[in-house]
TrEMBL record:
GO terms for molecular function: medium-chain fatty acid-CoA ligase activity. This is AMP-dependent synthetase. GO terms for biological process: fatty acid metabolic process. Pfam families: AMP-binding, AMP-binding_C. Belongs to the ATP-dependent AMP-binding enzyme family. Residues 15-394 form the AMP-dependent synthetase/ligase domain. Keywords: Ligase. The keyword Ligase applies. Residues 442-519 form the AMP-binding enzyme C-terminal domain.
């Protein structure tokens, strides 16, 4: 297997990949195909345009696209000149989107006219007060005081006065290649390359910055660990605006000389056609999506001979093997704060995963409530420190999530077993639905903002397909006129679709179960929601 690229910055990674892999496909998405050479050239052109627009080192630039080449080119162009790429969730809307842009100090946005079926002009105008009446492309909006412009990529016409159009294929400024090279030369591995936003235990978004060194080291490590190689063609359903798509496909493929294959959103029929047409060799998808592929009418007739790393039931010749994790895709533990997986393991006793293989340069331990390492056989919170851990949360105190010795407390519960750690689940109330994190506090706050909702409680409900579902209990003001369906409809305006509760039940205030220390009995409330929803279901 060829040795993955070792680079200090994203710009160096791109240049080396272009020199090493040249005319091989780097990215295939939405009918567009870019070789490694073309990807380097396309990002250089946009980088020169950005410099001409005044984007400088450290400037926060929002990237708002689906899983396509525009997202990839934009993110790489921004980061290679030392600016900070800030991927924006395609699901964020209304107040949620406004909060993300303001909290993240986003100075510019690169987006498309439409994305995943949504008109982006309407989406932004609905979220940002004063934008719809703004007259110039230079923005001065008090609710997003640092935002200066929004560029719609390759838009020909029909843009409002507050928008402008970035042309990716042609330099629109006199910025020279020499200046671009000088700018790139000043970018260091210790500079921030990008910032991911993730849900937290409070309503505010958590900005998680990562360094160029982190991105490049993680790409090389994962390429080696997961045995990526030149000529590999990988499809993942993980989105690019969160960690999964960046780590498990994009940067890992760039470092290995592999091709990353994308479609804007997962659809079983489209993905099966993609596997056959693009000769996909590796699938990185969620378990419920595997089931959708297996159940699709085109599955039996799809040419899947190219697949070598996937659920065995999808691989030709292994359909009868049952569910089994392929080599290289064993149990992995990671998070946004560590830029993806940092440790690997296998099934242990009672099917509890044993984490045994820790990334070089990283330390992992299990601590008790007094921050002391637990003894062998005891449980506690998993803590990590070292290379690839975020330097700290954006605009949060230095000790937010970290202790005085630099250990990041993950919120994961673990059991120490000699040199291994068994992952036992989450300590926090975070809801994990189909791979996405949902903070109950954020959903509850959105519910309380609705006229007529007096109390709101958000809990997880187990689900065989998605892991967990978001469920909510609401106590209403007398005469509010609200019901479960109306509450869900109202929340869809301000929350990402995956954050909108799947189940909503209405209760009287005295029905909510409390402990003697005034904490909601979460498990009991979950059962009550399920029972009430079942009672109200049509018979």
């Amino acid at each position: 297997m060829a040795t993955p690229i070792e680079a200090a910055t994203i710009g160096q990674l791109l240049r080396t990949a272009a020199d090493s892999f040249g005319d091989a496909d780097a990215v295939v998405a939405g009918g567009t195909r870019l070789t490694f050479t073309e990807l380097d050239q396309r990002t250089r052109t946009l980088a020169r345009n950005l410099i001409g627009r005044g984007v400088t080192k450290g400037c926060h630039v929002g990237i708002s696209f689906g899983n396509d080449t525009d997202f990839i080119v934009s993110l790489l162009a921004v980061s290679r000149i030392g600016a900070v790429a800030v991927p924006i969730s395609a699901f964020a809307r209304g107040r949620e989107l406004l909060r993300l842009l303001r909290y993240g100090d986003v100075a510019a946005i690169l987006t498309a006219r439409t994305m995943m079926g949504t008109d982006q002009v309407e989406r932004l105008a609905a979220a940002l007060p004063g934008l719809e009446s703004a007259r110039g492309p230079f923005l001065t909006l008090p609710d997003v005081p640092n935002l200066r412009w929004v560029d719609f990529v390759n838009a020909e016409a029909g843009l409002p006065p507050w928008a402008s159009s970035a042309q990716y294929g042609h330099p629109s400024t006199p910025v020279s290649e020499a200046l671009l090279e000088a700018v790139e030369a000043d970018v260091l591995g210790t500079d921030v390359a990008l910032m991911i936003h993730t849900s937290g235990t409070t309503a505010d978004p958590k900005g998680v910055p990562h360094l160029h060194d982190t991105v490049c080291f993680r790409a090389r490590y994962l390429a080696e660990r997961m045995q990526y190689r030149p000529g590999e063609r990988t499809y993942t359903s993980h989105v690019l605006f969160w960690i999964g798509g960046l780590t498990m496909s994009l940067f890992t493929s760039l470092a290995a000389g592999a091709t990353s294959v994308w479609c804007e959103r997962f659809g079983a029929g489209e993905v099966l056609a993609l596997i056959e047409r693009e000769k996909v060799t590796r699938l990185v998808i969620y378990p419920h999506q595997v089931e959708q592929l297996l159940a699709h009418s085109a599955f039996a007739t799809t040419d899947r001979a190219s697949l070598r790393v996937a659920d065995p039931r999808l691989v030709v010749g292994h359909e009868g093997d049952g569910i089994r994790t392929p080599e290289g895709h064993r149990m992995a533990l990671g998070m946004s704060e560590t830029f993806g997986p940092f440790s690997w393991g296998s099934g242990g006793a009672n099917h509890i995963a044993a984490i045994e293989d820790i990334q070089p340069g990283l330390e992992v331990r299990v601590v008790d409530e007094h921050n002391q390492s637990v003894a062998d056989g005891e449980t506690g919170e998993i803590a990590v420190r070292g290379r690839c851990v975020t330097p700290g949360y954006y605009k949060r105190p230095k000790d937010f999530g970290f202790d005085a010795d630099g250990w990041l407390h993950t919120g994961d519960r673990g059991l120490r077993d000699g040199n291994s750690i068994h992952y036992l689940g989450r300590l926090t109330q975070m809801i994990k639905t189909a791979g996405a994190n949902v903070a109950p506090a954020e959903v509850a706050e959105a519910m309380l903002a609705l006229n007529g909702v007096r109390e709101a409680y958000v809990v997880p409900v187990p689900d065989d397909t998605r892991g967990q579902l978001v469920a909510a209990a609401a106590v209403l003001d007398s005469g509010s006129g609200l019901d479960a369906a109306r509450i869900r409809a109202e929340l869809k305006r301000d929350l990402s679709p995956y954050k909108v509760p799947t189940l909503v039940a209405i209760f009287e205030s005295e029905e909510i179960p409390w402990t003697p220390t005034f904490k909601v009995r979460t498990h009991q409330l979950t059962d009550m929601i399920l029972a009430r929803v079942a009672q109200s279901a049509p018979r």
